[in-house]
Design goal:
Strand order of the largest sheet of chain B: 1-2-4-3-5-6-7-8
Largest sheet of chain A: none
Oligomer: heterodimer
Number of helices of chain A: 3
Strand content of chain B: 15-25%
Number of helices of chain B: 11
Radius of gyration of chain B: 19 Å
Order of helices and strands of chain B: EEEHEHHEHEHHHHEHHEH
Number of strands of chain A: 0
Order of helices and strands of chain A: HHH
Structural class of chain A: mainly alpha
Strand content of chain A: under 5%
Shape of chain A: globular
């Protein structure tokens, strides 16, 4: 795991950065943590989610565990940020 | 984890889950699907020392279900070969496990017949072609909540539902390999598995290929296996070449059911660990093959 110091805000910022860098992104979204990643929101497909996982792991130098990779983790930007924060040991 | 185009005319999107630095590893996995359940499976296999390549068709050939199945049928084995080549180049794998659901389950089985690098296959909810759905399967489907909903909404006329029950609906299961689209097609090539299924399994067994068949409890493929191939399966099972696992789920595509997908992944990893003696050797160097100890 990374020894860098993160805050919940910096993690959410990193999640947004990773989303905005996705090649399949449809349009610049409003920065709302409740914005769904899939249906009714960003409409990310499985390839985009896979690339998002890879980008976050690379950028934040950690690895998602099996228990993190659930549908509920990828419901919204906020839920994904919370999972990443928990994995990096950052309290919200 | 990045995706990249590969295969003839970049027909595929692939993603590799590596195991350490490139080097010689005997065993690699060819996994059809880029969804979360397949990502989880790839990571679990990596923890067993098995690198994998995940695959999905790209562009219209993926989004249009008719084109998707035509592509599988006409180019599927060539695409599997391209993926194995890539995993071989990047991770050193020389032998492969093929995993697929529905049409791609049938595809990996046929690919194993065509390419001796495939030493084990795990088809889930196999797609059969040209076989009538057994009465039990038709009854189950007729009595399912989904059928009643469709009848109530007028989407499924009562006359058609009754006809399906009575006449065997020869093409019903065989022509809906995606499980999500009612459009009809007929497949004669790389995804074709029909009444010669037992002979195909016997050919694989003769080569020492291990096959783990996984079905949802009420999937058409389970009813077809039970009604048409039970005797052959029993023999092949007794010889240790074929084994069958039933998952308590009603979904046809396992990645649509998170719980079922995890159960499938647990089963695949446990089966592979037993079959390849992964617990007793360094799988990063060489998983001993032919596989042994399959139950």
């Amino acid at each position: 795991m990374s020894d860098k110091q993160y805050t919940s805000e910096s993690i959410e910022h990193a999640v947004w950065q990773a989303i905005l860098a996705l090649p399949a992104r449809r349009a610049a979204p409003a920065l709302d943590p409740e914005l769904p990643l899939v249906e009714g929101g960003l409409e990310l497909d499985s390839v985009a989610l896979l690339e998002l996982i890879g980008a976050l792991e690379e950028q934040l130098e950690f690895q998602f565990q099996e228990s993190d990779l659930r549908t509920s983790s990828f419901r919204t930007v906020g839920s994904l940020s919370a999972v990443v924060a928990a994995r990096l040991g950052v309290g919200r | 984890m990045k995706t990249f185009p590969l295969g003839p005319n970049d027909a595929l999107l692939g993603s590799i889950t590596a195991v350490g630095a490139p080097g010689r590893r005997a065993l690699g996995a060819l996994i059809w699907g880029l969804g979360m359940s397949e990502v989880l499976l790839a990571r679990r296999l990596a923890s067993l020392g098995i690198p994998s390549i995940q695959l999905r068709l790209s562009g219209d050939a993926f989004t249009d279900s008719a084109r998707r199945n035509e592509t599988y049928d006409q180019q599927g084995i060539a695409l599997c070969r391209a993926a194995m080549d890539r995993l071989g180049q990047t991770q050193g794998a020389t032998r492969f496990i093929g995993l697929g659901n529905c049409a791609t389950g049938s595809l990996v089985l046929n690919a194993a017949l065509a390419d001796e690098r495939i030493v084990a296959v795990v088809p889930t909810n196999l797609h059969f072609e040209g076989l009538s759905r057994p009465l039990r399967a038709r009854l189950h489907r007729l009595l399912s909540a989904g059928t009643w909903r469709r009848l109530a909404s007028g989407e499924l006329p009562l006359r058609r539902a009754a006809a399906r029950l009575v006449d065997g609906a020869v093409r019903d299961s065989a022509t809906e390999p995606s499980g999500t689209d009612g459009r009809r097609g007929t497949y004669h090539g790389d995804i074709w598995i029909g009444d010669d299924f037992a002979q195909r399994l016997e050919q694989l067994a003769a080569r020492g290929v291990r096959v783990r068949i996984i079905c949802s409890r009420n999937d058409d493929s389970r009813y077809i296996l039970a009604s048409k191939f039970a005797a052959a399966l029993r023999t092949l099972q007794a010889d240790g070449y074929v084994s069958l696992r039933i998952i308590e789920s009603d979904v046809h595509i396992f990645s649509h059911d998170e719980t079922a997908a995890r159960e499938v992944n647990d089963d695949v990893c446990a089966w592979l660990a037993a079959a390849t003696n992964l617990g007793r050797s360094d799988a990063r160097v060489a998983a001993p093959l032919p596989l042994a100890g399959v139950t």
